[in-house]
C-alpha cells in the first residue's frame, strides 16, 4: 500500500487530505509542529481525529528541529511526500517575516532533502496564488510570468517553487507544486476572513471589509481541493525528451520532472457577494466596516484550472452557497452554538 508522508497534517488542508487518503486505504504519517499562529487546540483536535484511524501515525515537531524530520521519514519510508506545512497568511507576514523564511524556506529545504534521500515516487508541495503577485492577466494561468511577489509570504513560496525545480532537475525527483486559491470549509483556519466574518456576525461585532468590498477571490471548497491533490498524486511529472513534447498550456519544465498546477474553483467571487452568502447562511446581517486596501493584498485572484482538468479529468464542483452552509454548520457544532 502506498505510504504518504504529509507535513502540516494538523493544519486545515493536511487534515482533510489525510482523511481522504486514509479512507482510500493509503498509509499516512503526519508531521506537524503545532505552531501557535492560530488556536493550537483546533490543530490538536484534528490530529486526535486522525489518530483514531488505523494506518495513521504522527510526529509532533518543527521542520527546523535538526534531525526530527529525517528521523520520521527514515522510520516511515514514504513513497510520496505531500508538503503542506507552512507559515501561511498574507497579513501576518507584514509583521513577522522571519517565521516565513524559517518554515517556508529552511523547512521546505529539509523536506526536499528527505525526499531526495528516499527517492520518493512523487514530491508534491503547496505554493499559493499569492505568487502571481503583480500579475494582472486574469484568470491566472500556470504559464503566466509570476516573478513579482508582493509579500514575504509570496516570496518564500516562490522560493519553494524555485528550490523544488532545482532538486527535480538535479536529482530526477518528480515534483508537483500546487498553487492554491482561497480555501474554505469545515475545520477551517481561524485567521482567514470567512472564519472571522462568521464569528463576528454571530457575536454582533463589525466585520472589516477591505478595499470597500471591491475585491474578488477564487474561493475553493476544501473537499474539492483535496480531491485535486489526491488525483495529482497519480500524475508525477516526467522530464520531457524535448521541449516540443510539452503540450500547450502545460507548465512542465523543459529540463526537469517538475510542474506547477493551479487548484482553484475557476470562478471569481466579489467579496460583497461572499458576505451576502454568509449572512444568508447565518440568517443574520453583518455590521460592515468598510476599509481601504491592505498593503500586499491584490484586488483579484482567479484560477485558470484547465491544466488540473487536463491532467486529472477533474474540476472542483462545490458552489459557494453549499460550501458556506457546510462551514457554518460545522462552526455551530464545533463551538456548540
Ligand atoms: N488555506 C488557504 O487558503 C491556502 C491558500 C494558498 C496556499 N495555502 C498553502 O496550503 C498549505 C496548507 O495551508 P493550511 O490552510 O492548511 O494552513 P494551516 O496553517 O492550517 O496548516 C499548516 C500546518 O503547518 C504546521 N507548521 C507550520 N510551521 C511549521 C514548521 N515550521 N514545522 C512543522 N509544522 C509547521 C502548522 O502547525 C499547521 O498545522 C500551506 O502551505 C499554505 O501556504 C493555503
TrEMBL record:
<feature type="domain" description="NAD-dependent epimerase/dehydratase">
    <location>
        <begin position="4"/>
        <end position="235"/>
    </location>
</feature>
<dbReference type="GO" id="GO:0008446">
    <property type="term" value="F:GDP-mannose 4,6-dehydratase activity"/>
</dbReference>
<dbReference type="Pfam" id="PF01370">
    <property type="entry name" value="Epimerase"/>
</dbReference>
<keyword id="KW-0456">Lyase</keyword>
<dbReference type="InterPro" id="IPR001509">
    <property type="entry name" value="Epimerase_deHydtase"/>
</dbReference>
<protein>
    <submittedName>
        <fullName>GDP-mannose 4,6-dehydratase</fullName>
        <ecNumber>4.2.1.47</ecNumber>
    </submittedName>
</protein>
<dbReference type="InterPro" id="IPR036291">
    <property type="entry name" value="NAD(P)-bd_dom_sf"/>
</dbReference>
<keyword id="KW-0520">NAD</keyword>
Amino acid at each position: 500500500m502506498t505510504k504518504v508522508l504529509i507535513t502540516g497534517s494538523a493544519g486545515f488542508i493536511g487534515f482533510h487530505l489525510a482523511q481522504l487518503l486514509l479512507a482510500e486505504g493509503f498509509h499516512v504519517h503526519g508531521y506537524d509542529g503545532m505552531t501557535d499562529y492560530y488556536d493550537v487546540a483546533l490543530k490538536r483536535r484534528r490530529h486526535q481525529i486522525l489518530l483514531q484511524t488505523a494506518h495513521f501515525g504522527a510526529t509532533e515537531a518543527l521542520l527546523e528541529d535538526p534531525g526530527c524530520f529525517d528521523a520520521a521519514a527514515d522510520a516511515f519510508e514514504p513513497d510520496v511526500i505531500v508538503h503542506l506545512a507552512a507559515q501561511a497568511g498574507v497579513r501576518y507576514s507584514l509583521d513577522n517575516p522571519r517565521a516565513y523564511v524559517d518554515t517556508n524556506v529552511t523547512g521546505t529545504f529539509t523536506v526536499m532533502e528527505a525526499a531526495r534521500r528516499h527517492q520518493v515516487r512523487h514530491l508534491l508541495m503547496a505554493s499559493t496564488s499569492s505568487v502571481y503577485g503583480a500579475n494582472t492577466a486574469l484568470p491566472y494561468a500556470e504559464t503566466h510570468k509570476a516573478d513579482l511577489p508582493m509579500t514575504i509570504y509570496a516570496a518564500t513560496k516562490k522560493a519553494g517553487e524555485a528550490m523544488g525545480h532545482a532538486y527535480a532537475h538535479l536529482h530526477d525527483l518528480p515534483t508537483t507544486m500546487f498553487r492554491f486559491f482561497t480555501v474554505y470549509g469545515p475545520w477551517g483556519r481561524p485567521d482567514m476572513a470567512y472564519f472571522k466574518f462568521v464569528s463576528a456576525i454571530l457575536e454582533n461585532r463589525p466585520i472589516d471589509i477591505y478595499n470597500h468590498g471591491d475585491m474578488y477571490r477564487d474561493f475553493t471548497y476544501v473537499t474539492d481541493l483535496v480531491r485535486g491533490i489526491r488525483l495529482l498524486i497519480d500524475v508525477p511529472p516526467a522530464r520531457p525528451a524535448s521541449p516540443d513534447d510539452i503540450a500547450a498550456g502545460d507548465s512542465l519544465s523543459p529540463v526537469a520532472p517538475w510542474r506547477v498546477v493551479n487548484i482553484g474553483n475557476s470562478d471569481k467571487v466579489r467579496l460583497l457577494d461572499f458576505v451576502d452568502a454568509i449572512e444568508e447562511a447565518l440568517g443574520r446581517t453583518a455590521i460592515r466596516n468598510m476599509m481601504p486596501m491592505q498593503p500586499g493584498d491584490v484586488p483579484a485572484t482567479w484560477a485558470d484550472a484547465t491544466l488540473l482538468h487536463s491532467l486529472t479529468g477533474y474540476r472542483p464542483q462545490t458552489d459557494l452557497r453549499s460550501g458556506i452552509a457546510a462551514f457554518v454548520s460545522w462552526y455551530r457544532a464545533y463551538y456548540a452554538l
